[in-house]
Amino acid sequence: MGDRLGQFEQLILLALVRLRENAYGVTVRQEIAHRTGRDVSVGAVYTALERLQRKGYVSSRLGDPTRERGGRAKRYFMIEAPGEAALRAAQSAVVQMAEGAAYA
Hints:
Elements (H helix, E strand, L loop, with lengths): L6 H13 L5 H12 L5 H13 L3 E8 L7 E7 L1 H18 L6
Helix pairs in contact: 1-2, 2-3
């Protein structure tokens, strides 16, 4: 597990943890915007989700097609055990770096 998580990837994974079964591109984007004030594009979210899926940190499933979406299905995402471990390691590294640091 030599892959390091960037800040945006950490935000994506944290959004998946918070959203649980309702995590798809739009809701992930909204969660990040709501909690951080950071406006990100849905395309950036999907790019990061695909990258995290290739790493084995995230899995996805297709929901049922809906009329509102013209018969298209939403792709739902969930964090997997390796993603949880990577997220914990990334957060731990930040905490260790901040310990004892004097900054204003």
